[in-house]
Design brief:
The protein is built from 4 helices and 8 strands, in the order βαββββαββαβα. Strand 6 and strand 7 form a beta hairpin. The chain starts with 5 loop residues before the first strand and ends with a helix. 18% of the residues are buried.
Length: 130
C-alpha cells in the first residue's frame, strides 16, 4: 500500500502512465477527468491532474520529478524499489534481496544497519542535491 500523498507542479509529460504502472489507480471513473490540469496529484493510491495547487494532505514536490517518483514509490508492502538509509547513506534499492544485503555488508561491514528511508529523509536528500 502506498503511504505518501504528493503532487508535482507543471507536469509537461504523461507521468500518469508511470504512476499507473507503479500501481496507482485513476481517481475518476470517467478517464478524461483525470487528465484535466497541469499538476499531478497522488492521494490514497489514486492519481488525477488538476490546476489547483491546494493539497494540504500532500507533499508539494514543486517541479522535482525525481523526488515525486521517489515519494510515489514509498509503500509498506514491499521492500523493493525503495530508498534505504544505510548507516546514514541514502541508497535506492531495486530489490532488497540477499545480493543487496551482501553488497551492503561488503561496503559497510557485517554490522551495517539498513532501513527504509522516511519521507523526511527522502525530501532532505533531494533538497540537499540542489
Amino acid at each position: 500500500m502506498f503511504v505518501t500523498n504528493c503532487f508535482l507542479r507543471n507536469v509537461s509529460e504523461d507521468l500518469w502512465t508511470d504512476v499507473t504502472i507503479i500501481g496507482y489507480e485513476p481517481q475518476y471513473r470517467t478517464f478524461k477527468y483525470n487528465l484535466q490540469g497541469k499538476n499531478l496529484v497522488l492521494e490514497g493510491g489514486t492519481w488525477h491532474c488538476t490546476d489547483s495547487d491546494n493539497h494540504p494532505n500532500c507533499v508539494d514536490c514543486g517541479e522535482n520529478k525525481r523526488l515525486f517518483i521517489s515519494l510515489a514509490l514509498m509503500c509498506n508492502d514491499s521492500d523493493d524499489l525503495q530508498w534505504y538509509n544505510v548507516n546514514g547513506d541514502m541508497c535506492f534499492v531495486k530489490a532488497f534481496d540477499n545480493e543487496t544485503k551482501e553488497l551492503f555488508a561488503k561496503q559497510y561491514g557485517e554490522d551495517y544497519v539498513a532501513r527504509k528511508a522516511t519521507k523526511e529523509e527522502i525530501i532532505n536528500h533531494f533538497n540537499s542535491k540542489r
